[in-house]
């Protein structure tokens, strides 16, 4: 049970850090940050491996980088849809 809670907290923190690095406002608040953290951790691990400190099965450094990439891409897609409408 504690592992799930710790994973959710880490996903939220990683999502907030990745969002702050890119400078976009992630839609969805805490839930959006959690989803971005989970997807970003997956992307970061796939692209960069699992180096650095590991907390709650998250390789922190690749997860933050992957989340920043994910939030940046979401921001670009959002801008494209706003211009198209």
TrEMBL record:
Sequence intervals crossing the membrane:
6-22, 29-48, 54-77
Chief location of this protein within or outside the cell:
membrane
Question: How is this protein situated with respect to the membrane?
Answer: Multi-pass membrane protein
- List the InterPro entries hit by this protein, alphabetically: Transgly_assoc
Which compartments is it annotated to reside in?
Answer: Cell membrane
Q: Does the keyword Cell membrane apply?
A: yes
Q: Which UniProt keywords apply?
A: Cell membrane, Membrane, Transmembrane, Transmembrane helix
Its family remark reads: Belongs to the UPF0410 family.
Full protein name: GlsB/YeaQ/YmgE family stress response membrane protein
Which organism's genome codes for this protein?
Answer: Paenibacillus gallinarum
